[in-house]
Write a structure and sequence with these properties.
alpha+beta; four-stranded antiparallel sheet; two-stranded antiparallel ribbon; 4 helices; 23% helix; 13% strand; elongated
Length: 276
């Protein structure tokens, strides 16, 4: 009875390869050279193993698988892998289902589990499942375990910080409250003036309709007086008299001689009356 193959494998896994042949074998992958000496171990990435020895996940149909980052890759079918390896190792004649003239190697995981490649199993009897279900479940469990460990570490750090802050500092100071807003005064009633009770205003204790005598400080100030150096305004009669004009009567010529003498002259006297 053949051994149970590995249930799932990822593209980023590292595998241990043992050269069981009698000669040294060199291969290249990703610009790097790997030398497999007889009966010695060497460590190769899974992609290099699948390239040179065949993808152990290949089955009867083409499949796809997702890696730990969620990237999907196509997995060829087993017949295609056999044809590719026959061309790689120059198998021009013979049974097309068999591969000859290839290196004899054994591939193991780091845990020691045997992996059967296409060179070991051209018929596909020991196929590793190409479905990502098992691998995703394993990765999910590992991811949950890592996250739980990270959460526990973070919680311990937070609790330590809180303990240090609580031991080094007292209670926080209270937040100052704003002063209370004073209540508005009472609304004056019609017919009188009121003031807030207890403030000693002039209307405190008076009833509606009573007379209120205001203090002298609230009396109406006298009208302003004119400065003494400015002319005082005249009355309306004086203004009318000042605007009226009076034409003087002529009293003489330009030389001061009276035009009309007031005393009659001798020659201007009336003749005597006739006595006879």
């Amino acid at each position: 009875m053949p051994p149970t193959p590995v249930q799932a494998i990822n593209d980023g896994d590292i595998l241990r390869v043992v050269n069981k042949g009698g000669s040294q074998f060199r291969l290249m992958y990703d610009s790097r050279t790997y030398t497999l000496k007889p009966n010695e171990d060497n460590f190769l990435p899974f992609a290099a193993v699948a390239l040179w020895f065949g993808d152990p996940r290949s089955a009867g149909l083409i499949g796809s698988i997702a890696d730990d980052r969620g990237l999907r890759a196509w997995v060829p079918d087993r017949e295609t892998e056999v044809r590719r390896l026959r061309a790689k190792y120059d198998n021009q004649m013979g049974d097309e289902t068999m591969i000859v003239n290839h290196p004899v190697v054994e591939v193991y995981t780091l845990d020691g589990e045997r992996i059967y490649t296409v060179l070991d199993d051209p018929a596909g009897e020991m196929v590793i499942a190409a479905s990502p279900t098992v691998a995703d479940e394993r990765d999910l469990r590992e991811l949950v375990a890592r996250q739980q460990q990270q959460i526990a570490t973070l919680m311990s750090v937070v609790m330590k910080d809180q303990d240090e802050q609580g031991s080094g500092q007292g209670e926080p100071p209270p937040i100052p409250q704003p002063p209370p807003i004073p209540a508005p005064g009472p609304v004056p009633e019609p017919g009188g003036i009121s003031s807030a009770p207890g403030q000693g205003g002039p209307t405190e204790g008076l009833q509606t309709g009573e007379t209120v005598t205001m203090p002298p400080s609230t009396s109406v100030p006298p009208a302003p007086t004119m400065p003494p150096n400015l002319p005082q305004p005249e009355s309306p009669d004086a203004q009318a008299q000042a605007t009226s004009t009076t034409v003087p009567e002529p009293t003489g010529d330009f030389h001061g001689t009276p035009l009309f003498p007031t005393t009659p002259q001798a020659d201007d006297a009336l003749p005597p009356a006739d006595q006879g």
